[in-house]
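Bumping with the actual sequence this time:
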Amino acid sequence: MDASEVDPSELRSLLDKERIRDLLARWTRAVDRGDNDAIADCYLAESVDQHGAFLGSGKEFADRPMRRSGALVAKTHTLGQSIIDLDGDQAHCETYFLCPEVQKIDGELIFVQIQGRYLDVVKKAGGRWLIESRRVVLDWAYEVPDPKPWRALDAYPRSQLWPDDEVYSKESHAWPGYRQWARG
């Protein structure tokens, strides 16, 4: 097949799906870093999000105080496959996720592992794909009290909340003892 055989509607579909995947990744980073403005920016003004017992708008989800309460020590989502069914300027999406968290509950560190799916309806508004509705479906979860940190952790930079996390710095990474040949 050469370029003359490509259906332009297929290219539009691929571009829309990639933009939706980018939306989902940006939402995930914003939640993990506690960036409330970036979370809210992923939703339509008239949106709904159901995360377990929470049911509210995307803006209300973004403004939940628990992200900055100190109870959440660390959180890192990993997104899996997404099925995106496009229908014009709307799409229905199913995205698998894995989310390990470390929480401090009653002074004790608890490791929580959550796996499930995001069921989203997204819409294109003003040229951007945004979440209109999200429902979290839990496949499984468990918790382990008093996790023992990996001994080598002290050698790594630690994740931070917005705006202190390194992802918000656009500077080049440099470190003492850097060897030019290591990247060459």
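The tokens above came from a reply further down the thread. The domain at 3-152 is CATH 3.10.450.50 (Nuclear Transport Factor 2; Chain: A,).
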